[in-house]
Design a protein that fits this description.
Oligomer: single chain
Order of helices and strands: EHHHEHHHEEEHHEHEEHEE
Mean pLDDT: 96
Strand content: 15-25%
Number of domains: 1
Largest sheet: 8 strands, mixed
């Protein structure tokens, strides 16, 4: 069983915590090809391409200029500790023990516009390149055309080590779109997290849903879950499985806010 996650825009580049375990991104040579297209872009070009502020564009131009393999613990950081968005706050990697981090590394794959797919302990250097970015490259006009079926093939290689061939899709639509489900040798289960008030109007609230995706990974790691059916017992921060709203491969989890 493997969990798919999206990356985060916010990064924690501090060097306050450096675990001993690390690995190298499996598609790093592909990332180098993309960086060859990114590095020549001036800050203003990055701002227009990515629809970001001038300040962020300047930061990422500097990141691109400094991006250079080989990655080491001195010039890079493990992905699970670098990404710093809502999903990763839900996982809370800095407070997971060694066994839990090992579980996360072995069961989680992070989709990335630049790196393709990352394992949690893969070293990475900071970047900004969302999967939906229309970056012209040697294979086409955007990142979906650049990656083609390469990420799917990499996941299939990983799935060879899996007994149940199950992928739990916790990625956003933007990132999951890079996967080619018909070519993926796995059953895909997509958890959906909905919040309601006083037992009514249950809907997906982006902030809560992103955090819940990370919470589910944390729950699986804390309980060393290997049987996907046990994910239906997920109950962190008030969520519970709702069978009536669920289908075979879309599992709905509800949380009720009372008196708000």
């Amino acid at each position: 069983m493997y969990f798919l996650l999206s990356p985060a825009k916010n990064l924690n580049e501090t060097r306050d915590f450096t675990p001993k375990m690390y690995s190298e991104p499996p598609l790093l040579e592909e990332a180098e090809l993309l960086m060859n297209d990114l590095r020549p872009l001036a800050p203003q070009q990055l701002a227009e391409l990515m629809h970001i502020s001038d300040k962020l564009a300047l930061l990422n131009a500097e990141r691109n200029a400094n991006w250079q393999p080989p990655f080491t613990p001195e010039n890079a950081k493990q992905a699970i500790y670098m990404f710093n968005g809502d999903v990763y706050e839900g996982i809370d990697a800095y407070h997971r023990n060694e066994n839990e981090i090992s579980y996360i590394h072995n069961h989680v794959r992070i989709l990335s516009g630049l790196y393709g797919v990352l394992r949690p302990l893969d070293l990475m250097q900071p970047y900004r390149l969302e999967m939906g970015t229309a970056l012209p490259n040697l294979r086409g006009k955007n990142l979906y055309e650049f990656w083609g079926d390469r990420i799917t093939k990499r996941l299939n290689f990983t799935l060879k080590c899996s007994e149940d061939h199950i992928v739990v899709n916790l990625a956003s639509q933007e990132y999951f779109k890079v996967i080619q489900p018909a070519k993926l040798n796995a059953r895909i289960i997509t958890p959906i997290f909905k919040d309601g008030k006083n037992g009514q109007n249950f809907k997906v609230v982006s902030f809560y849903a992103k955090r819940a995706r990370g919470l589910m990974v944390r729950y699986a790691a804390e309980n060393a879950i290997e049987d996907v059916e046990l994910l239906k017992d997920f109950d962190l921060e008030g969520y519970s499985f709702h069978a009536a709203m669920s289908s075979e491969n879309e599992w709905v989890f509800l949380r009720n806010h009372v008196g708000e």
